[in-house]
Amino acid sequence: MAYPDLAKFGPFVQQQHLDIRDMIMRFAQEQLAPGAHERDLLAAFPAELIGELAALGGMSMKTAAEDDGPGLDNVGYALSIEAISRFDPSVAVVAVASNLAAAILARHATPDQRERFVKPIARGEKGAVSFALTEPGAGSDAAGIKTRAVRDGDGWVLDGSKQWITGGSHAKVFTVFAKTPGEGGDDKAVSCFAVEAGTAGFSLGRGQDGPEVIRHRPAVLRGMPGAACEPDRQAG
Ligand SMILES: Cc1cc2nc3c(=O)[nH]c(=O)nc-3n(C[C@H](O)[C@H](O)[C@H](O)COP(=O)(O)OP(=O)(O)OC[C@H]3O[C@@H](n4cnc5c(N)ncnc54)[C@H](O)[C@@H]3O)c2cc1C
Predict the structure, then answer these.
(1) Which residue has the CA at smallest separation from atom 50 of ligand 1?
(2) How many CB atoms within 10 Å of residue 117?
(3) What's the CA gap between 85 and 29, in Å, rounded?
(4) In testing the pocket of ligand 1, which one of 98, 164, 212 has its CB within 8 Å of the most ligand atoms?
(5) Is residue 165 in contact with ligand 1, taking CB distance under 6 Å?
(6) Measuring from atom 23 of ligand 1, which residue has the nearest CA?
(7) 145 C-alpha to center of ligand 1: Å?
(8) Is 132 in the pocket of ligand 1 (CB under 6 A)?
(9) pTM of the predicted structure, to 2 decimals
(10) Cβ of residue 211 lying under 6 Å from some atom of ligand 1
(11) The pairing of beta strand 173-179 with beta strand 130-132
């Protein structure tokens, strides 16, 4: 829709932002709104609808066009999240977590990870990505995380637990934050790992009223095809 009085949206909003916002809003109004209240009452996760939104680019909005993403700037992203929130705030929370995780991957991925994670996520093939930072003992104080990652051959072993992980029960990919002492930074250095659900040693706890707990001690990848480490199976 052409907005003749574009100026009323402020100096940063352009017609192309509104075109994208309108497309997302149409999806939210037609597809998400009808069952949103009932899903909230039942604590049901709309995996199929989230998959459809992901196919529209909604779970990886700021990923660049060369990585198969929509390449939105912050204004387009904010307007799109606002449009989803208007009709299904729960899905908007999932989208925010996924977009945060996807943006980190898009910015820092190695060429291998770009093919393996960033592009499939941008195309919607992985649904919503989960962002796994919070732990039982570390929320606001993100530097207080206890999860550790140590090198093992070409791969890494992660050891720790996370909680409040939005969309964790259905995510195929998690961005997991862990301390990496002795990796060139100081002992407080934190790294982010792309971890696929189903990785040996990774397990998912039961969510209570929402975000899930994940526990993992997996072999994970960071730039190496086929992590060579043996996962520790004592994960609990
Ligand atoms: C719906 C929902 C979804 C979430 N999704 C995710 C997710 O996808 N991924 C993820 O990693 N995490 C997620 N979280 C976790 C969220 O990021 C944490 O809850 C948040 O960081 C706060 O941590 P905490 O709950 O441990 O509270 P705490 O950090 O223990 O804080 C408790 C209270 O103390 C206050 N406080 C803390 N530090 C200070 C300080 N220095 N000075 C003054 N006051 C302080 C806080 O403001 C708060 O009121 C989610 C949480 C919710 C509720």
Answers:
(1) 164
(2) 24
(3) 10
(4) 164
(5) yes
(6) 139
(7) 13
(8) yes
(9) 0.87
(10) yes
(11) parallel
The CATH architecture of the domain made up of 130-220 is Beta Barrel (2.40)
pLDDT tens per residue across span 176-208: 999 988 776 677 788 899 999 888 888 887 655
How many CB atoms neighbour CB 236 within 10 A?
Answer: 7
Residue 193 tokens read as 């790992």
CATH superfamily of domain region 15-122:
Acyl-CoA dehydrogenase/oxidase, N-terminal domain (1.10.540.10)
| Same topology between domain 15-122 and domain 130-220 | no
Enumerate residues 6+ apart whose C-beta is below 8 A from 97.
128, 129, 130, 131, 166, 167
Q: Give the other-Cβ count within 10 Å of 147's Cβ.
A: 22
Which residue ranges make up each domain of the chain?
Answer: 15-122, 130-220
